[in-house]
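User: Could you check the structure of this?
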Amino acid sequence: MTFAINDRPIGPGHPPYIIAELSANHNGALERALKTIDAAHSCGASAIKLQTYTADTMTIDCDRPDFMVQGGLWDGYKLYDLYKWAQTPYEWHQAMFEHAKKKGITVFSTPFDETAVDLLEKLDAPAYKIASFENTDLPLIRYVASTGKPMIMSTGMATEAEIAEAVDAARGAGCKSLVLLHCISSYPAPLDQANIRQIPELARRFQTVPGLSDHTIGTTASVAAVALGACLIEKHFTLSRADKGPDSEFSIEPEELKRLCRDTHDAWLALGQIGYQRQSAEEGSRAFRRSVYFVRDLPAGAVVGVGDIRRIRPGMGLPPKYFNALIGKRLKSSVARGTATSWELFDE
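Assistant: Sure, the predicted structure tokens are below.
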């Protein structure tokens, strides 16, 4: 199931792919957006991800109750006004793509309609993300899949049947490389509802590379997700939560992103391989296992008694399981206290 984005492999057996989600954390300034790209790169992120939409491609300017946010972080906002505030202008995209390329960090985006895909194709986006709120928009999924680029799809709010429909739509339209991100679409998401045990189930059920789009506060869920097999982690990223913005409350700052990159990589390293082989780091410790030693000076021809030998450290003698078998054995030659037992010391 492994594939690559810009030659960086993603999948089991490879370090976690860390996406810093810029989203609306540019706070309406291109200069801040470019600085955020720089920060993501210096923190060690694998990629920076944008969101490509306008208020008009996302919704209509309407103040009927259906179009008003009720509760949560954006309570009282009209959808159109919220997206107007949060949008990344189309005219910024080329500058952002060029800047990321110069810095050496991968950049791609979440398109929210076909015009966004067309723009991103002109910029040679290497991959696409489907947001949780769009995972039921099968026409959009098919349009994205027709590009032949790798797709990353969040599963927030989706039922098993809806995920199956989205996966079938993507694969049926030409997607060969697909990541499914477990996601809880709450902003922020309560840690006790993160439910990251779902991650290996997504991989098993849909035969895709698994990952996590993490909206919880902090990095604990992301690190734990890697231990459960997540190959890709997406986390909202801001230069400073204190600057405020549409997504700032559930975004991580540079020091946290550095820690996320470090700790998820360490968690992946710790996974290792299934098996009973001794690890190379253990070789030096073998000497300090228990084994059977002579604890008395004995002459040649002596018959070994219970008090003549003990199961002690170090481990240069015969294993402790042979202790009883050595009782009553006759020595070929004399031995000094502290001599490790070996079969060569005894008569047949």
